[in-house]
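B., you asked whether I could sanity-check this one before it goes into the benchmark set. Here's the sequence:
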Amino acid sequence: MLVVGELAMNAFGLLAALSLMRPAPELDAATQKDVRCFAVLSSLAETGRERGDQELAEHASSAATFFLSRIRSRSPSLDLTQALTAEAAANGTRPASDFIHDCIDERLRYLESVTGSQARPKKRK
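And here's what the prediction gave me:
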């Protein structure tokens, strides 16, 4: 019986490894950008929490949630972990500053389109 259990565990391990080798999901440009923004802003939120900057953490977390909502509404069956892994492999060596301004501007454009007024944040002290 132990041999059967070991085979089952080895088969499970092989299936788990093979699932990690699946090709990255094909994403349209808008979803790919949203995945990138979600990753960057989630990381920024974590940085804010680590530094004790509650305002930064809250704003970045809110923005990350915005992009996550767009991802989920556009691609509800997307394996987000796999998409994030593919994004990290494609852009992991580039600094977040390469992307962050575009991500924030995208969110502000959305807020401005919904509210009909300018949604630019106040300058920080």
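One thing to flag: Residues 27-115 form one domain. Otherwise nothing jumped out at me.
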